[in-house]
Amino acid sequence: MCHPAWGRARMAAQRLNDLARLRRVRDRIDREYAQPLDVEALARGAGMPAGQLSHQFRLAYGASPYAYLMARRIERAVVLLLHGDLHVADIRRTVGCSSALVFRTRFTELAGMPPDAYRHRAVRTAADMMTPWVPKQATETARAATTRA
User: Fold this and answer.
1) What is the pLDDT of residues 112-140, one digit of tens each?
2) Are the CB atoms for 107 and 118 separated by under 8 Å?
3) Measured between alpha carbons, how far is residue 4 from residues 10, 88, 142 in Å?
4) Taking residues 33-56, what's their average pLDDT?
5) Which residues contact 63 (CB under 8 A, 6 or more apart)?
6) Any idea what DSSP says for residue 96?
7) Which residues 6+ apart lie within 8 Å of 61 measured at CB?
């Protein structure tokens, strides 16, 4: 009969192995978010059944693999909306979302507003935060005039 500590050590080693596989799945999602990914393909790559992958991924990261993938896609879309000149439909395709409805729904859930409103608000907010540019010479002249008075 095996020593009880061996069984616990074997279980701990298996748990570490499972966490490493989940981390590889998460890293793959982070790298390949724009590619067509589904839970079955991710599970095959990890050598796990899809149900087991979904369950363990949710326990480890607090979200299903699909929800994590969509969050990564929306994060990338936010960056493209703020710093690019692509149309929303082009951004949706760039980040790997084939469905306009799913993209808009998930974006609204995660960002609090639809993508076009998000871009409009970000542009307006940036314009409001900009201070007018005043040449250095003008500020020095104004400072000198106030100190003489």
Assistant:
1) 999 999 998 877 776 565 555 555 554 45
2) yes
3) 10, 59, 82
4) 93
5) 57, 71
6) T
7) 22, 26, 68
* 100, 92 Cβ separation under 8 angstroms: yes
With cut-offs at 50, 70 and 90, classify the pLDDT of residue 15: confident
Instruction: Kindly state the greatest CA–CA separation across the chain.
Output: 97
- 114 neighbors 129 (Cβ within 8 angstroms): no
The first and second tokens of residue 68, run together, are 């994590």
| Tokens 């020593």, residue located | 3
Q: Residue 21: which H helix or E strand, with range?
A: helix 4-31
CA distances from 81 to 11, 28, 47, 70, 75 (A): 46, 24, 36, 16, 10
AA identity, residue 17: N
Backbone angles phi, psi at 35, to 5 degrees: -85, 155
pLDDT reported for residue 58: 95
Which of 41-74 are b and which e, b meaning 16 or more Cβ less than 10 Å from the residue's Cβ? ebbeebebebeebbebbeeebeeebeebbbbbbb
Q: Which amino acid is at 97?
A: C
Q: Where are the alpha helices (DSSP H) in 47-149?
A: 50-61, 65-83, 88-94, 100-111, 115-129, 136-148
